[in-house]
Protein: TetR/AcrR family transcriptional regulator
Amino acid sequence: MVVAAPKADRRVTICEAVFELLAEVGYDRMSMDAVAARARASKATIYRGWPNKPELVMAAVEHRYGGSAEPPDTGSLRGDLVAHLSTVCAVADGIDGAVFTGLLTAATHNAELSAVMRRCVYETKHVMYETMIKRAVARGELPEGSTPELLHEVLHALVMSRRLWRAGPFDEAFVKRTVDGVLLPVLRQGC
Amino acid sequence: MVVAAPKADRRVTICEAVFELLAEVGYDRMSMDAVAARARASKATIYRGWPNKPELVMAAVEHRYGGSAEPPDTGSLRGDLVAHLSTVCAVADGIDGAVFTGLLTAATHNAELSAVMRRCVYETKHVMYETMIKRAVARGELPEGSTPELLHEVLHALVMSRRLWRAGPFDEAFVKRTVDGVLLPVLRQGC
Structure:
């Protein structure tokens, strides 16, 4: 008997069911059976595609976060940073932030899941930071040779830390203070 | 019958037993019974002092991390930052970092534990940052009115993020890059 892998549209339905359940009950209480029921798929289909829960969750994380996007293009470095950080804050403050915080739990015991999360939430986003920096260099706002590594690392760490420790709201004041007090000084050092 | 609270030296023994078990088996698998056995205390003594596991863990976290310390005093702002960050990295890289990462799991479901962790690992340390900044102002390295808030927030976030995502080693290169590329530019903006 030839066993086919789940087709693309089934994959999408299943990944979305996984994400819904992660949001509703969290990683520990999510079962493969519940995913099958939510996606109206047979258990055989689920297990054929993903042998266990970590694999299934990794697929759902890739599906939802694995891509990149065009960064904002406001005409100034500061404008781009404010717009981008505002978007990141909205994501961290919403259901995605809650799911991700929950998954960190599982990831501390699972290096592979941790690596997938890091790739999806960090590495695939790096090209956006590169684009913002290139545009700022082209406009003469930053010197030739400026790189996005520190910007990306600091922005990511500050947002994640605030979310994880419930250290304060993701409001305009946070965005402004982070952009003007941290990100721009880090980028403009030596200017 | 008058029931006395555990005496101070019993408290220390019990808190240290809790921390050892957190390091060995993690929060989820640590039982009140195991703590009693490790501390050679009766279960009645444990339950008399702390009605449940979160309370007991919070006491242990307070015991081990609740205090502050004198910051390094090397004679320069950069020297102080390098010395302090090196110490923080050594802690994050060792057993305390592992225990703390494990406790974050429990803290995502327990706002009170989260608040205790934040107080012990962040708020009680703030005075060290104040002292470092005051000394730098007195030496004329920073302008009057300089404050430690951003320094503390950024340093804490960068170390925690690196630990949690296993993003790289806590080596001299990380310390140097963080101090020269992020912390000093943040502190010296407007200088």
